[in-house]
Amino acid sequence: MLTAMPVTKGHEALIRFAANYAVGTGGRLVVMLNTQPEEPAVNIRKRALNNFCKKLFREYGWAGSDEWEFKWVNETLEQDSSAPGFWDTWRVLLKYVAGWGHAGDVVITSDDYGRDVAALFEGCRWVPFDGERSVVGTRGTSLRGPGGLRAGWSQVSDEFARESRMKVTVFGAESCGKTTLARDLGTALRLSEGSWVPEWAREYLGRVDGRLSVEAMAEIWAGQKALQQTAWEVSRDWVVVQDTDLFSTVGYWDFWGGAEHGLPDRPVGLLSDAEYLKSDLYLLVSDNIPFESDPLRYGGDKREQDMEYWRGVCKRYGLPYRIISSTTQEGRLQEAAQIVMDYFDMTRNLVYTRRGQ
């Protein structure tokens, strides 16, 4: 039995202990998650735990319901054990939802409420696990509240992490410091390898083909898409920072497309891919620093578009964005880091008081 807000490595350890206990005693395991509809990340918690159970029990060779089941109760329930009807409600849930309460059944929990649950049915008993958090020193309550999830990210289960992390793209006109900001942001947020993603087009244009052509744009589309997917798959940090993404390719194709520039209209599939890999947040960098020429840029000695063009791209395609307006590298970094941390805390907020607490 668990509430798992959020799902941590401690919860996974509890389930592993229960599975090993079931194997050792010849029993059957039921994992029961209790959430309430008003709580944060309800569906994420459910998917994360269910996916973990499926993967774990395949290791045991357990095919399905004969060996284990995952039960999910998502109802607004009183949490004050002294409230009238509290234990009657749980007796019904355990008996008719979990199929639990027969003589010889055990309840496995890390917290002491397991003793009271076992007492609901004659012949049932409580088996505690790691009440002092000595095996896995994680308490979900420490990860709730502003900054808690970020600070304790290493304690979060891999399944929950995959569902909860954030993707940020540094966005805007050429020669406005996007690459420097993205790289410095990865360092400032102490991200691991694979969590800062460079612009694939720069490597391609510099090493393979610097011409403006249909073939080059198609190659950039395919390469940028593959790079974004790869980074997302290998990173486990709470945020992945990208130096541009496919919406930049969309924006450039919209600008250069048409007979005037020798490119056809933008392919439909490009926008579909960009939307599929869309970031949670776009840091739109102001073009308020001097332009620096670069042979890889098609615009020559001037910017092809200004910040307002890229703001228009954000609005046209519904991209959530924040403007980075400082004119200094240090100021931009501080501004961007604070925006990213605040946005994560706001959108991944786990602050919630259960009824009766």
Keywords:
single chain, 357 residues, Rossmann fold, 2 domains, 5-stranded parallel sheet
Total DSSP E strands: 9
Q: Rg, please?
A: 26 Å
Q: Spans of 5+ residues with little confidence (pLDDT < 50)?
A: none
Query: Mean pLDDT score, rounded?
Result: 87
**What is the level-2 CATH architecture name of the largest domain?**
3-Layer(aba) Sandwich
- Report the biggest beta sheet as strand number plus sense, adding barrel if it closes: 5 strands, parallel
How is this structure best described in words?
The chain is α/β, with parallel strands linked by helices. It has two domains: 9-148, 3-Layer(aba) Sandwich (Rossmann fold); 165-347, Rossmann fold (3-Layer(aba) Sandwich), CATH 3.40.50.300. Helices cover 43% and strands 12% of the residues. The strands form three sheets. The protein has a five-stranded parallel sheet, with helices on both faces. The chain has a two-stranded parallel ribbon with strand order 1-2. Helix 1 crosses helix 2, helix 2 (42-59) runs antiparallel to helix 6 and helix 7 packs across helix 13 (329-347). The longest helix is centred in the middle third of the chain and has 21 residues, at 214-234.
